[in-house]
Amino acid sequence: ALLAGADDEAAAAEGCRTGAEAVATVGGRPPT
Prior knowledge:
mainly alpha, elongated
């Protein structure tokens, strides 16, 4: 991609979404 920042934000957003889904599925602690 031309903008590395955009990739970083997309990767962070994907990681946060995946982590939140995992926590919701397992019923663990909420994301901080």
